[in-house]
Amino acid sequence: MNSKQLSWLIRRHCVEMTHRACVSHIGSDFSASDILATLYAGVLRYDADDPQWRDRDRFLMSKGHASAALYAALAESGFFPVEELMTFCENGSRLIGHVSSKVPGVEFSTGSLGHGFSVAVGMAFAAKKSGDMGHKIYALLGDGECNEGSVWEAALFANHFRLNNLVAIIDRNQMQSLDFGENTMELDDPEGAYRLIDKWRVFGWRAIEVDGHDLNQLKAAFEEASENADKKPHKPTVVIADTIKGRGVSYMQNDVLWHYRYPHQGWEYDVAVRELCDAIPDGVVDPYASSVIMREARSENDGETADDHALSSSWKTTYPEQMRRVEARPGTDERVHAVIEDKQ
Amino acid sequence: MRDAFVRALVELARKDKRIELITGDLGFGVLRPFWEEFPDQFTNAGIAEQNMVSVAAGMALEGKTVFVYSIGNFPTLRCLEQIRNDCAYHNANVKIVCVGGGFAYGSLGVSHHATEDIACLRAIPNMTVMAPGDAMEADACVRALVAHPGPAYLRLGRGGEKRIHETTIENFTVGKALRIHEGERVALFSTGAIYEEVAGAYEALKKQGLSPALYTFPTIKPIDRALIENVAQNFELVLTCEGHNVLGGFGSAVSEVLVATDNRKAKGLLLGVHDRFTEIAGDREFLRIQEEIDSQNIALKVLEKLRG
Fold first, then answer.
1. Which of A110, A145, A259 is nearest residue B47 as measured by Cβ atoms?
2. What are the φ/ψ torsions at residue A106 (nearest 5 degrees)?
3. How many domains are contained in chain B?
4. Which ranges of B77-149 would DSSP assign to H, the alpha helix?
C-alpha cells in the first residue's frame, strides 16, 4: 500500500470510528493523517507480525488524542484486524480514546501532552548509550503541545546528548482546543521576526519545514532527517509539518469546533463520507461500501462526550478580542494573521 | 456540575473584581459565559500547567482570588510541586478546579482518569479539599471558597449528575458533611459524583429492610470529625465510597478519624478503585462496575459485611 492510499484509509476509518463512538478529535486525526501515512507506508521499519522486533523503528504518538488515526494506520499496516477499529472506545475494547500501548504496534501510552516526546528522547538516549544505532526513534507532537515546558526540556536534553537517532515531527495545524494557537500562546512572531522553526534551531536542532499534506515533501523530509544523522556535529532533527486541522473534509477545515465535535448522524456524516469517497485513490476499495465492516452508530445521547460537544455546527468561539491574532473563515484553508496592538 | 461552577463564579465575579479565572486551554463550551462577560478577568495560559499554577500563585500574592481550571490530572498531578511549594506553602489564594474527577472521562483512558488526586492534594498542608456531589453542592462550594482565603482544591464531576438537593443549601460550611437521610445501624458516606451510586445502594438496602443513614461530604479536608465520631459510636457499620483509589482518599480520611474514636462501635467498609489502572476502554458506568463501586455492588458489600 502506498502512502496516498493509506492516508485516505486513515481518514475514512476516522470518520466511522468517531461517528460510531461519538467521540472527539477528528480534526486532530485529519491533520496528522498524511504524516502517519508517510511514516507507516515506507519510512518506519517494523514487523507487524512481531511488534516487539528489537530493531524496529520506534514511533511515539505524543499527541495522544489523535488515537483514531494511529489505530487506523496500525490496523491497515497489519498489526491487528481492521474490523477491530469498530470497537473504538466501546466498553471492554482495548482501543481506548487516548493512545494505549495495550494495542499491538503502539509503542507507548499517551494522552497527557508533553510526555511522549520526553520518553522518545529517553529511548533514543538509551539506544545511543548502548551503541544500538540500527533503528531510529520518531515522535509526533502537536504544535499546541509545544506550550508544555517539558517539550523544551526534552529539546535541550536531546541536543545536549547529540541524539542523532531521534526525529521529532510537529503537526503544525495552528489550532488548539479553544482557538488558533496564535490566539492562545504565540509561537511565531506576528511581524515575522522569528518562527517556531527558529525556536527549534536555537535549541540546537536541525530543522526542516514542509507542507504536512504533501506526501512527497514529507517523504523527502524523512530522508533528509536520515542523512542528517550521519552529519557532524550529531544533532536531532525536527520536521515542522505545516498542516490544517480537519484537512480532508471541507467543512471541518480550520474550524475549532472539530477539535471536539464528531460527525453526527445526518448531513455531517453524509457529507464527510461523500467528500472522501469523491477523492478515493486508485487501488483502494472503500471498506465501508460493502458489508465487509458493519456500521451501526450508537445513539448520540449514549456518547460520553455527547453532552460536551453536541453543539450546533454554527458554534463560534467568542474568545476575548484582545487576545486575537488570527482570523479565519471556518471551512476554508485560509488564515489571516494580524498584528494586534498591546492593550495598556 | 461544571455549569453550576461557572454560573456561581460569574455571579461572584460581577461583585468581586479580584476574581480571576485561568484555564489550561480547556473548557470549550463550558467557560464561555465567564470569558464573554469578564474578558479582563479571564486568561488562557495555554497547555502549560506548571507555569499556570505558579503564575496563579504570583497573582494571588498580589491580591487576586485565582481559580485555575483544567480537566483530569492536568491541574493537579501534572503540577503538584507547584501547588505544594508555590500555592500551599505560601498560603496563596489559589483555587484549583478539576473537571472530571474519577471516571468521568471513562473511555478517554487512564491519562484522563482522576483517581489519585484526593490522596495527593489532601496530603499537602494548608489545602482545603472539596468534592461536591451535585450542582447545588458545587454552587455552595464555589461561594464558600471565595469567602475562605487560602489554597483549595475543588473536584468536580462533569455534568448530568443526579440532583441531591432540591434547593440552595442553607448554612453550608466548609468542613461539614450534609445529612440526606437519618437512619440506624448503617451509615453511608459519599463524596463527589459517586453519590448517584451510593443513593442507588441506599434504595436497594431499604428494600432489604434496612434503614441506613446517608451523608454526603462536600468537604474532604478538613474532614467532619465530630460527625464521624458520633456515627462511629452509634452505628454498626460505616461505609465510605469514592470514585478514587481506595488508598489515601476519602475513605482513608474517614478511617483516620474512626481509628482514633473512643468507644467506637462501628466497623468500617471502604470502597473505591482497587489500586489498579484500567487497561480497556469503558464509560463511567462500565468502569464503576469493574471496580465494584456501582450501586448494586455497594449494597451487596454492605449486606455481606453486616452478616459478618
1. A145
2. -85, 125
3. 2
4. 80-81, 117-122, 135-146
Q: Measured between alpha carbons, how far is A243 from A304 in angstroms, rounded to an integer? A: 29
Whether B148 and B255 share a structural domain: no
Query: What ipTM does this complex have?
Result: 0.90
Residue A222 lies in a domain: yes
Domain containing residue B222: 178-307
Q: Are B187 and B163 in contact (CB under 8 A)?
A: no
**Structural domain span for residue A128:** 29-81+95-242
Same domain? For B199 and B285 the reply is yes
CB contact under 8 A, B42 and A320: yes
| B8 & B40 share domain | yes
> Are A109 and B281 inside 8 Å of each other by CB?
no
Range in A27-36, A183-192, B260-269 the model is least confident about? A183-192
User: What is the pTM (predicted TM-score) of this model?
Assistant: 0.91
User: For residues B25 and A147, is the Cβ–Cβ distance under 8 A?
Assistant: yes
A112 contact residues in B (CB cutoff 8 A): 72-74, 78, 111
Tell whether A99 is covered by a domain. yes
- Each residue's pLDDT tens digit, A267-302: 999 999 999 999 999 999 999 986 445 455 555 444
What distance in Å separates the CA atoms of residue A145 and residue B75, rounded to the nearest whole number? 16
Domain assignment present for residue B21? The answer is yes
Query: A23 touching B, CB under 8 A?
Result: yes
Interface A-B, measured as beta-carbon pairs within 8 A, has a size of 130
Query: Which among B25, B27, B160 has CB closest to A307?
Result: B160
Which runs of consecutive H residues, i.e. helices, occur in A236-314? Answer: 257-260, 267-278, 306-309
Establish if A313 touches chain B: CB-CB under 8 angstroms: no
Q: Find chain A residues with C-beta within 8 A of B280's C-beta.
A: 91-94, 96, 102
B234-277 pLDDT per residue, tens: 999 999 999 999 999 999 999 999 999 999 999 999 999 999 99
A190 within a domain of the structure (yes/no): yes
Specify whether the CB–CB gap between A24 and A18 falls below 8 A. Answer: yes
Residue in A64, A94, A320 closest to B280 by CB: A94
CA distance to partner chain A, nearest, from residue B166 (Å): 22
| Subunit contact A95:B106, Cβ cutoff 8 A | no
Interface check for B184 against chain A (CB to CB < 8 A): the answer is no
